[in-house]
Design brief:
Elements lengths: L4 H22 L5 H39 L7 H5 L1
Helix pairs in contact: 1-2
Length: 83
């Protein structure tokens, strides 16, 4: 479930940013290509940062959060929470 968080973020961002990227790509104005590439880089950087944040939180607090959510009858190792 946690592994899907970056994918869900990308899907929502791609839906909202696609019209902007399309207009930049189709534009003949000077600087639109540079703005297109900058926007793509910023989106990828944001998603990468979010993915890293989720991975760090899961590594630090994942097993404890899983026990809170699903009960103490189940054990979860840190690596298992990330995969």
């Amino acid at each position: 479930m946690l592994a899907r968080a970056p994918l869900q973020l990308f899907q929502s961002v791609s839906t909202s940013i696609l019209p902007h990227l399309t207009s930049l790509h189709a534009s003949k104005e000077e600087g639109s290509e540079r703005e297109f590439h900058r926007t793509v880089r910023m989106v990828l950087l944001g998603i990468t940062a979010f993915t890293a944040f989720v991975a760090i939180v899961v590594l630090i607090a994942g097993p404890k959060c899983m026990q809170i959510a699903f009960g103490k009858n189940f054990t979860y190792d840190r690596a298992g929470c990330c995969w």
